[in-house]
Amino acid sequence: MRKNSIKNTRINEEVYRELANIVRGEIKDPRISPLTSVVAVEVAPDLKTCKAYISVLGDDEARKNTLAGLKSAEGFIKNMLAKRINLRNTPAITFVMDTSIEYGVNMTKLIEDVNKTNDDTESE
């Protein structure tokens, strides 16, 4: 199976959907922030590994705790995925912190600040 095949795309979407449901509602670890979301999932073509990109709204401490909680729950998450998705192999999940949402919010704030200072200088 090639990386960008239709089958791989469908598997990515299905794993993404189920993983988001598991992270949102199934895990009871208090270290995992309630403001955690699964941004994207990339399942390898051989179905052995999976990278799950997660985003946590909060400070660095919340991100570290959430990542530690998710890493400790990898076995539980893999078991739940195996029950919900009928795949030949259930992929081993690696969680990766995705900071693109935070980066976008920061860039928007910077652009608004620049526009505000330009508006202030033009009005003078």
Task: Describe this protein with a few key phrases.
124 residues, alpha+beta, GMP Synthetase, Chain A, domain 3, 4 helices, 3 strands, 56% helix
Task: Describe it.
The protein is of the alpha+beta class and 124 residues long. It has a single domain, classed as K homology (KH) domain (GMP Synthetase, Chain A, domain 3), CATH 3.30.300.20. It is built from 4 helices and 3 strands; from the N terminus they run αββααβα. It has helices at residues 6-26, 60-72, 74-84, 100-123; strands at residues 36-43, 49-56, 92-97. It has a 3-stranded mixed sheet with strand order 1-2-3, sandwiched between helices. A hairpin with a 5-residue loop joins strand 1 (36-43) and strand 2 (49-56). The chain starts with 5 loop residues before the first helix and ends with a helix.
